[in-house]
Amino acid sequence: MTRMRTSLRRVTERDLRQIFEWRRSPQVRKQMISRSVITWRGHKRFWAKRLRSENPSFIVRFDGQDAGLVRLDAVENAHEVGICINPKMHGKGIGSAALAEVVKLARKKNLKKLLARIKLGNAASHRIFEKIGFKPIYMTYELRLKK
């Protein structure tokens, strides 16, 4: 059995359409923390800032194909990890492999702590983060009120 290789490369402007399509897919949207609608204009504006920022973003390469996105966002005394996998490639172990690459990169850069916010119902993400060694530390509760 041939082992598939996973690697990370920096996001460039050429990746923006592909990232937009991944993030707009219903499978990905239902697992995202943000509920706001993603428009092409807003997406381009976000990434114009993001590409100039200190917070790194990477395309996940898996078996020679672009397979997803990983972001590291500096937050107080830590870096928050965000992962978005191409919905056509779910269930292939890409999330686990990508997260392992991110952890290696974080260690190499001497980052102190990684965090992740994951929806309660996102069992696949819970599994991969815990498999790598992340521990749940708290839950956030929400009550939506009518305006």
Describe the protein's architecture and organization.
The chain has 5 helices and 5 strands. It is of the alpha+beta class. It has a single domain, classed as Aminopeptidase (3-Layer(aba) Sandwich). A 5-stranded mixed β-sheet has the order 1-2-3-4-5. Strand 3 and strand 4 (78-85) form a beta hairpin. The longest helix is centred in the last third of the chain and has 15 residues, at 94-108. The chain is globular and about 50 Å long.
How would you describe this structure in keywords?
Aminopeptidase, alpha+beta, 5 helices, five-stranded mixed beta sheet
The CATH architecture term is 3-Layer(aba) Sandwich
| N-to-C CA distance | 57 Å
Taken from the alpha-carbon principal axes, the silhouette is globular
Helix coverage percent of residues?
25-40%
Average residue-wise pLDDT: 90
The CATH superfamily label reads: Gcn5-related N-acetyltransferase (GNAT)
Lateral arrangement of strands in the main beta sheet: 1-2-3-4-5
CATH first level: which class? Alpha Beta
Instruction: Indicate the structural class.
Output: alpha+beta
Please state roughly what percent of the residues sit in beta strands, choosing from under 5%, 5-15%, 15-25%, 25-35%, 35-45% or over 45%.
Answer: 15-25%
Radius of gyration based on Cα positions: 15 Å
Named CATH topology: Aminopeptidase
Tally of strands: 5
Order of helices and strands: EHHHEEEHEH
- Poorly predicted runs are none
